[in-house]
């Protein structure tokens, strides 16, 4: 249950009192190094070079960030940080917001952020969401060093609807949207909370992909699956290079992206209307012909994020 916001937010922001951020999370309690009598830290910066063997050094930024993401999932909590993402959560007003942590020295009058801060704190006050203040260093430790713009929000995770809701809701939304993306068997997908735009995307969960594809076809969708370019000995009538694929404004496209290592299954590819690939530009003779019957290989090093961005840009730019 949300507690009421104190009468004056400014007093909280300027008080500088010590607080425990967002309840008990032992993994993220700041482990401050012991200090000398003159107040200077005894240990070096967390990004100390590898040749230093001081065991008191803190982990690297990447390690801290990975630990933060793992612990975040374990505690079923989502930390939203950054002005854009926090504003988006407030605008969408879909999540349950537990509390907000703010840098005790936050500069509310900063020209580039003044208007955004005004909206954020006015909305928090209006909804009675508690605000706590602490030091920037503790905030850095809490989110594993990710940039937070002096504000961190503890919220519930966004929940995904089942695929049947997509089919049910589509007639009402079909006229507004024409391209849909499906991430199939993607390992540990991470949605960067600092973006904010994701708050306005609808997410659905599919249990039976093949049956869902049949339902999509019955609704008039064109299903495009991503794949690698096959060698010369293989043929596929549905295989097309992305540059040659076009969509009309009236077409409803459902694009399926597979795992970066395994790709999509043969069953999914066979049910697709087209199998599209992004042409690589660097081809060399295979150094180990026994491992590659084609004798050539193409360096395709795109991850799912990059491939998805290229696909969306292509189709959005070439709608007939």
From TrEMBL:
The keyword Repeat does not apply. The keyword Transit peptide applies. It comes from Plasmodium vivax (malaria parasite P. vivax). It comes from the Eukaryota. Keywords: Methyltransferase, Mitochondrion, Signal, Transferase, Transit peptide. This is rRNA methyltransferase 1, mitochondrial. It is found in: Mitochondrion. Residues 1-21 form the signal peptide. Pfam families: SpoU_methylase, SpoU_sub_bind. Residues 27-58 are annotated as: Disordered. SUPFAM superfamilies: alpha/beta knot, L30e-like. GO terms for molecular function: RNA binding; rRNA (guanine) methyltransferase activity. InterPro entries: Alpha/beta_knot_MTases, MRM1, Ribosomal_eL30-like_sf, SpoU_MeTrfase, SpoU_subst-bd, tRNA_m1G_MTases_N. GO terms for cellular component: mitochondrion. Residues 79-161 form the RNA 2-O ribose methyltransferase substrate binding domain.
């Amino acid at each position: 249950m949300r507690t009421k916001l104190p009468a004056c937010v400014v007093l909280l922001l300027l008080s500088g009192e010590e607080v425990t951020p967002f309840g008990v999370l032992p993994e993220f309690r700041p482990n401050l190094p012991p200090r000398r009598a003159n107040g200077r830290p005894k240990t070096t910066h967390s990004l100390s070079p590898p040749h230093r063997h001081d065991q008191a050094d803190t982990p690297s930024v990447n390690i801290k960030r990975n630990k933060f993401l793992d612990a975040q999932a374990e505690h079923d909590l989502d930390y939203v940080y950054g002005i854009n993402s926090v504003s988006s959560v407030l605008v969408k007003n879909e999540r349950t917001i537990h509390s907000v942590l703010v840098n005790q020295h936050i500069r509310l009058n900063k020209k580039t952020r003044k208007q955004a801060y005004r909206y954020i704190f006015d909305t928090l006050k209006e909804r009675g969401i508690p605000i706590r203040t602490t030091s920037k260093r503790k905030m850095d430790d809490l989110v594993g060093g990710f940039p937070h713009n002096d504000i961190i929000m503890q919220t519930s995770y966004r929940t995904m609807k089942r695929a049947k809701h997509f089919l049910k809701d589509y007639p009402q939304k079909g006229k507004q949207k024409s391209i849909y993306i499906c991430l199939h068997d993607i390992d540990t997908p991470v949605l960067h909370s600092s973006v904010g735009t994701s708050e306005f995307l609808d997410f659905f969960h599919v249990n039976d992909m093949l049956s869902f594809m049949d339902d999509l076809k019955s609704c008039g969708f064109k299903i495009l699956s991503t794949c690698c370019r096959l060698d010369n000995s293989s043929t596929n009538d549905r295989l097309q290079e992305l540059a040659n694929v076009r969509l009309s404004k009236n077409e409803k496209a459902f694009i399926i992206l597979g795992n970066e290592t395994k790709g999509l299954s043969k069953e999914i590819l066979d049910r697709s209307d087209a199998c599209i690939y992004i042409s690589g530009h660097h081809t060399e003779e295979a150094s180990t012909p026994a491992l590659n019957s084609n004798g050539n290989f193409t360096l395709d090093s795109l991850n799912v994020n990059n491939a998805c961005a290229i696909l969306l840009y292509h189709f959005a730019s070439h709608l007939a």
